[in-house]
Give the backbone structure.
Amino acid sequence: MQPDISGIGLADLVEIMGDTSWGDDESGAAFVGDDYSSIIGAVQQATSKALSSALATKRAQSGSLLRSMPPRSSREFALGLGSTNVAGSSSANINVQPQVIFRPERLVIPSNVAPDFLITDIKVGKNSQLVSTGALPAVGFTETAFGVRLKMDTCQISMFVTLTVTNQNVVAKNFQGMIIGPAVE
């Protein structure tokens, strides 16, 4: 016969495990025919289930059902910006969404594209990665440029990296580029 502990709270369960006077059932009669170790085993098993249930309920109420997993691997990734046709003397937003946690560190723009463009903003999520509102010449980020490591904010999987460019030419031009940085999976 296993005692019913369904109505007992967490504090009561801890007290029960330390109390050895529970040997009587609800009628007040001692357990007959059961040895002491099997009764303790039954109570410990029931207590363990009740504690697990109580802890699961507490975690659900506190919102901590997700467990934190450390990254499995880290490496450098390139995030392509595609090819975007930008009308003459106008701006365009180029949005890309990494599929892994990614921290942009280097913007690379081909040297045959860069002379026609200005970089007016770089955003990770909603946050600008530039310290002022002034436009940057795209030629500063060509493949041969050095000393242009930016170390931007980390982009989570659901966030966008947005590059805002302005075509300085009166003729429509295609903008291309990529962003390089570490990513974790």
